Amino acid sequence: MSPEHHWRAQVRRIAILLAVWAVVAFGLSIVGAEALNQISFGGVPLGFWMAQQGSIFVFVALIWIYAWTTDRADARAGLVEDDTPPPADH
């Protein structure tokens, strides 16, 4: 995989994850809240729950998905960083 192809894939991944975040944060929690409030989730209107808890859960999941998929893509591209500290000189 060329560096340009890897970078384009990375930008596409970020754009998709940001689009999901925007739909959940603005679409479900603000614009669609009235419609979602017709549904109860654990005794709480779903629109309210999405604004208070659901969007946070989705955001944390998106961070995890980003890190996991980026690690895999970096490994396929041969861009894995070595975090092993160098041996100490005595």
Any overview of this molecule?
By secondary structure, this protein is mainly α. It has helices spanning 3-31, 33-36, 46-77; strands spanning 40-41, 44-45. A two-stranded antiparallel ribbon has the order 1-2. A hairpin with a 2-residue loop joins strand 1 (40-41) and strand 2. Helix 1 (3-31) runs antiparallel to helix 3 (46-77). It is elongated. The chain starts with a helix and ends in a 13-residue tail after the last helix. The model has no long low-confidence stretch (mean pLDDT 89).
Summarize, please.
The chain is mainly alpha-helical and 90 residues long. Helices cover 72% and strands 4% of the residues.
Order of helices and strands: HHEEH
Assembly type of the shown chains?
A: single chain
User: What global shape is seen?
Assistant: elongated
**How helix-rich are the residues, as a percent range?**
over 70%
- Helix and strand composition category: mainly alpha
Distance between the termini: 41 Å
The main sheet comes to:
2 strands, antiparallel
* Residue-averaged pLDDT: 89
DSSP summary, beta strand count: 2
How large is the share of residues in beta strands? under 5%
Keywords:
two-stranded antiparallel sheet; mainly alpha; 90 residues
List the helices and strands and how they pair.
Elements lengths: L2 H29 L1 H4 L3 E2 L2 E2 H32 L13
Antiparallel strand pairs: 1-2
Helix pairs in contact: 1-3
